[in-house]
Amino acid sequence: MKKFLIFLFLIIFLNFYIISYSLPIAYYENKVLIFKITGTISIAHYEALLDAINIAQKENYNAIIILLSTPGGSLDATLKMITLIENSPIPIIGYVYPPSSTAWSAGTYLLMACHIAAMAPNTIIGSCQPISYSPFGSTPINDTKILNALISLMSTQAKAHGRNETIAIKFITENLNLNDEEALLYNVIEIRAKDVNDLLNKIDGKEVNTIYGEIKMNTKNSMIVEYSFRLRESILNVISDPTISSILFLIGIIALIYGFSTPGHGGEIIGAIALILALIGMGFDINIAALIMMLGGVFLFIYELMTPGFGIFGFSGIILLILGSLFITPFSPEKWAVPSEWYMTFTYTFLFIAVLISSLFIFILMKIIQVRRKKPIIGNMIGDIVTSISDAAPNEITFVIYRGEYWQAKCKNGIKKDKKYKIIGKDGPVLILEEINEV
């Protein structure tokens, strides 16, 4: 009877487990993949989106939702991501989220390329006019070659998805900004949704055109899975941020100066690693003039270390490093699409950190220079007086006290305890003494 009850319990437990396990599968017969874009758009987002689309295709996801909260970013990366979206077999929904977020500039280009465009309450898109950047400010670009290329891109994407081409073009020509209500009113987006679940319910049943034909969205009650960046993309995403890559480059240059001036402390290794990471983050797209200025600053610093005084060469090196650091980021409008507000924040942040790091390393270098140019202490020992602490035979090595420290010493006439002697030379670590004739 006892065995029968145990057997019955196992049967009931097994049935309960199978039922409970199968319920979620039946309930979540559809899946959507969430792909987040926060911060500046970089090549890391392109590689991650490529991976996300492959995963969605292999695992039969019904849709990919790109959550946009970005000031913009690399236009090269954005164009590559637009190509991925256009050729995706899985419908891709662009969604400016969470509330109060922005999808400015490059973010708006991505939103216009998605099969469905949606925005959360109190979100903003626009500010797509290209900007020319310099350390002294930013000005709108009016070069027709650049403008026409970007206008054609924006217009084509809007037309392909049945959106308002006129307004889409004004994002560029007039630097127009729209909130979620205005974007829906002017037919720039299709959906306003308070959250992801609301979005899934509202797009359910809609038909979208993909490269493989028309697909009817089936997203209601879908299981939501968030895409996780792989380690490679996570690192690349961090170092691709213009602020981070520029600071890494500055640290690398100054660390190399420190390493060359004080070998054996690891400065060369830290500098090389920082420079490599910075170059990867910048995509090897560096302003040549800025690079020459920074390298010139390095050589002036090294030259200053080899010459007396900390004068014109050292301060010239400081000026070149600061100027080079201002120009080192690739700011050409063809490659970066961010609003002027973001640029000003970046400039002030980077300048503050650049000056702080430069000041720290300059202080260290000045201390090193002071130590190196200080008259050797051994040279000052000749003629000084020491006191013996023990007896010693002629030329026998014993210990004496010199400036509160124990030193080895010897004297050709021998040494007597508690007697004073004068230093007349040095043989390696051993002081050579001469007896003082006391009157």
UniProtKB/TrEMBL annotation:
Keywords: Membrane, Transmembrane, Transmembrane helix. The chain crosses the membrane at residues 6-28, 235-258, 270-303, 310-331, 343-365. Coiled coil: none annotated. Residues 35-193 form the NfeD1b N-terminal domain. CDD domains: Clp_protease_NfeD_1 (cd07020). InterPro entries: ClpP/crotonase-like_dom_sf, Membrane_assoc_protease, NA-bd_OB-fold, NfeD1b_N, NfeD_membrane. This is Nodulation protein NfeD. It comes from Thermoproteota archaeon.
